[in-house]
Design a protein that fits this description.
Helix content is 34%, strand content 26%. It contains ten helices and 15 strands.
Length: 340
């Protein structure tokens, strides 16, 4: 059994703790958060968690095997480096970092310590995403021409200016960090590395300091094009589609809506699916329900135990950070930017 500490106890930190209830691979024994109030104390009691006074206390505890970071991105590099130095495995919520250089620095620290790196791109673990990956690799879609995603939710309509997600240093380009990086990771998983990006991002509806409408164009090294749109001030939705010379495959679902029940946030991200071949009738089906947060943690635990590598390798985590950096740079420059 892997003993872990969750660092940061916002909505998603709580969701991760709830996902491991009853797991025989990994459990949370400790939590650490900047603000301890009655709600935090009640949650800790409910889930039999010890509240650590500081991150340093977490790292000094020999009974803790891994730390799970549900913290703002700006602190990730330092938190990862100190955890690696203390001999802890690290599971980091996305985005890993906002730059290739910082990602290299954090990954190198974990590699030197021979510790496992996990990252919360949980959509990659759903059977429908794996099925799409296998369909592409088997050639069932033919030559891939284009890959695209739209991810939306209404959260920015209710986000106070004091929230850290309203800070452009912590959450640049609106929905990119909380949602869009999932799609970027899926594109890398399905079609390989991204070569160039172009982005436009602005506030169309909300005036709380963050963008609400962001669109990105990609050219992948494999030759196909890509598109990603994120909107944070409209109804919740998720659509992911790959177009090839033999047909297209689409997955639909929802995104994490603020205030939604934990079970919904973990298990209802994928819904209607469709495959339309060039010739013949379309296939339609409903995605199975799976706790993708638990699935990601299970893979992390198996990697710590040496049973299988974590499915998202460090080089793909690094490339994802480089793509994010290029997208942010393009939104400022107004130009097509090369991914480093």
């Amino acid at each position: 059994m892997i003993n872990a500490a969750v660092v940061g106890l916002g909505t998603w930190g709580k969701t991760m703790v709830e996902s491991l209830a009853g797991s025989d691979l990994m459990r949370f024994t400790t939590l650490q958060t900047r603000t301890v109030n009655a709600d935090v104390e009640a949650f800790a009691k409910q889930h039999s968690l010890t509240i650590a006074k500081s991150y340093q206390d977490v790292l000094a505890d020999p009974k803790i095997d891994a730390v799970v970071l549900a913290t703002p991105v700006s602190g990730h590099v330092q938190q990862i480096e100190t955890a690696a130095a203390a001999g802890k495995h690290v599971y980091c919520e996305k985005p890993f970092t906002f730059s290739r250089k910082e990602a290299e620095q954090a990954l190198a620290a974990l590699a030197r310590a021979k510790r496992v790196t996990g990252i919360g791109y949980n959509r990659r673990f759903h059977p429908e995403m794996i099925k799409l990956h296998d369909r592409i690799k088997a050639g069932e879609l033919g030559t891939i021409q284009h890959i695209e995603a739209s991810m939306t939710y209404p959260n920015a309509l209710f986000l106070p200016p004091t929230a850290w997600r309203s800070n452009k240093n912590e959450a640049p380009l609106g929905g990119l960090a909380p949602m869009g990086v999932h799609a970027v990771d899926a594109m890398i998983y399905l079609c390989g590395e991204i070569d160039t990006v172009y982005c436009q991002s602005f506030a169309r509806t909300v005036q709380n300091g963050t963008d609400d409408t962001t669109s990105m164009l990609f050219r992948l090294k494999g030759g196909m094009s890509g598109y990603l749109g994120t909107m944070t001030a409209t109804g919740a939705g998720f659509s992911f589609q790959v177009f090839g010379s033999k047909g297209w495959h689409r997955i639909e679902g929802v995104t994490h809506v603020a205030g939604a029940p934990s079970e919904e946030r973990r298990t209802r991200q994928f819904g209607a699916c469709k495959f339309q071949p060039v010739k013949g009738n379309a296939e339609t089906w409903e995605a199975e329900r799976l706790d993708i947060v638990r699935a990601t943690f299970d893979a992390f635990a198996r990697a710590i135990e040496g049973k299988a590598p974590f499915p998202i390798p460090p080089e793909q985590i690094l490339h994802g950070a480089a793509v994010t950096e290029a997208v942010i740079r393009s939104a400022t420059s107004g130009k097509v930017e090369k991914v480093s």
